Amino acid sequence: MKQRQTGERVLISFDYAIKRLLRDKANYEVLEGFLSELLLKNVSVKSIGESESNQESPEDKHNRVDILVEDESGEILLIELQFTQQIDFMQRMLYGVSKAITERMVRGDDYIKVRKIYSINIVYFDLGQGDDYVYHGKTHFMGLHKNDELRLSDAQRETFKKETATDIYPEYYLLKVNSFNDVAKDTLDEWIYFFKHNVIKDEFKAKGMDRAREALERDNLTPEERRAYDEVMRQRSEDLSFIASSKLISRIEGRKEGEIIGLEKGLEKGREEGREEGRIEREKLADELAKERKEREEREKEYANLRAEITRLKQNG
After folding, report:
1. d(CA 87, CA 65)
2. If residue 85 lies in a helix (H) or strand (E), which one and from where to where?
3. What is the separation of C-alpha 188 from the centre of its chain, rounded to a whole number of angstroms?
4. DSSP 21
5. In the prediction, which pLDDT does 54 show?
């Protein structure tokens, strides 16, 4: 058994397990455990398949996984893991839900056949601004004047088997794995710890953990499966390293460009300040010259008056 340290069992990554192992009915218990802890209700998986929006391409096949789970009640759970930054990920969440709804409707179907959708998004980058690492979004209809919440009628509750309008509309869960501080305070935190480190501690008791310890043990893979897994992990590390390096290079180049622009602006400012200081010095010098010229003219005038007075005195002698 591969160990990181006493009390910690290193397993294969959750996204790889979803793609390769958890689709086996024998391993449904793993997904059921996580979903039950997240949704705070017992979830029983009926089937697992690809989401219609999961069109793998060479550039993202190692950095995202997107699957669709149908539970025994007929509700749909979209589970997506995303490892690289995507600025429009919020819109992607909305698109995935919308597509899952419409793809399951046949033209002419009554709207009553629209199914409840849960969008569960596990991301490994900083998305939006917020201090938490688990966010839950859902739809409420609130009165603008009475501030009351719109409730379903008796007939609607009987027909839809739902209690509130919120129960009909999609719900979104956003787990920001890298924002988790590694302190597991509850059973959901235990799952997030696993998502972040591929490790399940011996003391973790969350639903589905026992089965995960068995099903996701790397040493249980065949040699071919281990090589395939290691290659996926290696490729992901390279992809993430490339992205991180590109961001670092961009920041360095941006800083250098900023320094050059700042230097050019500083030089221009220095030239402007130099011109202004020169203008002030020239004006100051001109004022001093004018003052000296005026003083000289006044002295010459005094000398002229003095000579005239001496001449007059000699004449009156």
Report:
1. 17
2. none
3. 21
4. T
5. 47
- In this prediction, residues 257-286 reach a mean pLDDT of 80
Is 66's pLDDT higher than 70?
A: yes
Q: 112-150: buried (b, 16+ CB within 10 Å) or exposed (e) per residue?
A: eebebbbbbbbbbbebeeeeebeeeeeeeeeeeeeeeee
Separation of first and last alpha carbons in the chain: 136
What is the mean predicted confidence (pLDDT) over 242-261? 74
Residues 6+ apart with CB under 8 A from 77: 35, 43, 68, 69, 70, 71, 117, 118, 120
**Per-residue model confidence as pLDDT tens digits over 4-23:** 555 677 899 999 998 888 98
Asked whether 23 and 12 are in contact (CB, 8 A), the reply is: no
Q: Residue 88 — φ and ψ, nearest 5°? A: -100, 30
**Nearest of 169, 135, 164 to residue 150 by alpha carbon:** 164
- β-partners of residue 117 are 76
As a whole number of angstroms, the distance between CA 44 and CA 24 comes to 14
Model confidence, pTM: 0.73
The position carrying tokens 């409840």 is 116
Task: Kindly give the interhelix angle for 28-39 and 187-197, rounded to the nearest 10 degrees.
Answer: 130
Joined tokens for residue 305: 């008056």
Q: How many residues does the chain have?
A: 317
Residue whose tokens read 């997030």? 192
For residue 52, give the nearest of 71, 70, 66 by alpha carbon: 66
- The reported pLDDT for the residue numbered 51 is 64
> Which of these, 111, 99, 35, 112, lies nearest to 70 by C-alpha position?
35
Q: Which two tokens stand for residue 115?
A: 């199914």
pLDDT at 221: 85
Q: Enter the tokens of residue 27.
A: 């391993």
